[in-house]
Sequence to fold (310 residues):
Amino acid sequence: MTVEAAKIAGSKILITGPTGQVAAPVIDAWAGQAELTALARFSDPAQRAALEGKGVRCVAADLADRNSLSDLRDDFDYVLNFAVVKTDSFDYDLAANAEGLGRLMLHCRAAKAFLHLSSTAVYEYAGHAPRAEDAPLGDNHRSMFPTYSISKIAAETVCRFVAHQFGIPATIARLSVPYGNNGGWPWYHLLMMEQGMPIDVHPERPNLYNLLHTDDYIEKLPLLLGAASTDVTTVNFGGSQAVSIEDWCAWLAELTGLQPEFRDNPAAFGSLAIDTARMHELIGPTRVDWREGVRNMVATLSPQLLKPGA
Ligand SMILES: NC(=O)c1ccc[n+]([C@@H]2O[C@H](COP(=O)([O-])OP(=O)(O)OC[C@H]3O[C@@H](n4cnc5c(N)ncnc54)[C@H](OP(=O)(O)O)[C@@H]3O)[C@@H](O)[C@H]2O)c1
Fold:
């Protein structure tokens, strides 16, 4: 590993999208050791109160709104952009996900490092081939989230432009499939199995991804911040093991006795396995074995579904 981890303890850190699936466990891990500020629209006041109860300063802002950063301080050591919006409006989503990111970077341009969470949804579908960072981009997630891939690609471009233009060290991490004891895609699949709902999969089976456990990404985030550069470091971010929807559902079946019903759908995302070479070189391999991670997820969220001894 060539990267020195950013020091989280004692640092002033801005986290956008703090109430989301991915950022919430990071807040829990870092609250108390770092000086955390959280930015979101906070449409649900209870979520803001819960964060404030953890000692996190909250700033209500809509990243799509050009004037909404006026109450935000600008002296952060590190900024992590987890905010994302997925409506059917291209205008709103591009304004929030792409333009809003640019304004945020300009506002916080004194930061030592900026980490933008992107997605492997930026890659064009290419069968089972693991996607390296220079693989062709495409509108991968259109069938479920019409604006998502395009606005994530636009956000990356804005991130690079602002970093290059203003000399801001940045990393773009293309996240695969995050999961853990707070849920994630395998959790939705378990709920679908419980309800007897069919699970859409691309007909070119198996549908391969790189499940990334919360414990692993919390450990790697300081390294991704450490990897930031004014050239902008773009890196895939997933578990070191590739695993398919079919395999994690088969494991869920073994743990619970519930059976998945797969339905071929050519419009399903399809395999998005990542080439892990650059990730391993920069931040090293991940540690959580996916079977263990998925078992712990079920034991935490639905212990009643676990077969005795599973
Ligand atoms: N979850 C996944 O499976 C997955 C996979 C690959 C990549 N990613 C990436 O990981 C990051 C986090 O995703 P997530 O799944 O945790 O997202 P999420 O659960 O949808 O949460 C989104 C967060 O962004 C905030 N937000 C939404 N619109 C906003 C706006 N206009 N202004 C300010 N804040 C706004 C939301 O709070 P308010 O609504 O209160 O504003 C919330 O805190 C994103 O970059 C996403 O693209 C996620």
Remarks:
- The first strand starts at residue 12 and ends at 16.
- The two ends are 36 Å apart (CA to CA).
- The CA atoms of residues 237 and 263 lie 28 Å apart.
- The chain has one domain: 12-303.
